[in-house]
Amino acid sequence: MHIKNKRRMNQIALAVGMALAAPVALAATVTPTQVPGQGFVAYSGGTAVAAATGAGTETITITSATSNTPVILQWGGTAPSGATLLNSTGTAGFNIGASASTTFAMASSGAAVLNIDVTNNPSQILGALSVTGSGAGVTNLFVANANGIVVGSTAVITAPGGLGLVNADLSSTQAQAVFTSDNVLPISFAGASGGVQILSGADMSGIGGGTLLVAGAGVVNVAGAQIGASSASHYAFSSSTALDINGGIGGYMDTATGSRFTPQDSGAAMTFGSLSTGNATSGFSYADAPGTAVSLNLGVTTAPFDAYALSVLANGSIANQGDLTNVSNSTFQWINGTLTNTGQIDFGNQGTSSALIPTTTTADLGFNSSSLYGNTRPSRRAASSTPAPASSMAGPSPSPAPPSTTKAPSRWGRAALPTRRS
Asked: Considering only CA atoms, which of 332, 297, 309 is closest in space to residue 239?
């Protein structure tokens, strides 16, 4: 399928649009001053962790014993004897009220910090979440909840080293061993539900040049808007942020390097009981969440979203409702679903003004089967065929091998949308 500058595709997959409206699982009420509570240090590797709470404020100070020592904090559940407790009198769970703030103060070197919410309620980030200190720029902060995550319209997040919002269960011994020993975040969607929602109005611009990983099962909604007054406004997401949106594709992320998500879902899905430090990045098949719907609503005509560092994966459908520009390096890959567009997908660049700088570049946009397997077969080859209709492109079914309108990317995340001169 060819997409020229500002060419609009009409949506015909109405059922997909209805699926995108599904909410995250019913969440408990979060008070305006609530901060993460009833937590404990599940792993620190000798790193000192301490929490200080006040009225609507919480500061978790992490002093790393050595560089890149991972830390795991669990919120809810029963703390083992001798564990360091965090806000033991607070409300259980990783939640931040609209008037509250939680700060991770990295007092020395950076580290990967994994927060696991096991309360069986979705995590809600409605206020301020920040990473500060000398190690902030190399700290990957993660929030994991198998029951879903909501980032509300009043949220302000500053995490210059990167942020991961992961709707998956990482409470198992095996998953945590891989995280602490291999610096690998394993993502399997077995038993996960609720998805991830980032509502319009949330300010995520403080992630800067880090990676924002949004990974969910069932539904993943990502919306953005201009923040602040016109004289000092900025967009909800920085154009320098590597934005990884994952709708139900199992795989892993290297937390030491901060590299982007790697899918690993070939063959039948395996349970974490067989996960080990020896197979986490090769040989283990992470479980997908088939039928996940991804919805994007980023950018408007007068201020398109710079999608140069955007990657969108789905075992299901992808729907774009916003105005994306500079997509020559973007990745859109999906299986078992469709891609629909009721907004704009453009190869032009956004200048310093609101005027779009047009190009004469065209591109082939289509599903690509070289990296996504859907837990259905050990390998899949990319085959060529005629393009699908411009209004809605259907992804491949598990078998037989599907057609493709693009060549297989030579490197993951870089070549799913190749450009060519007219």
From this structure: 309
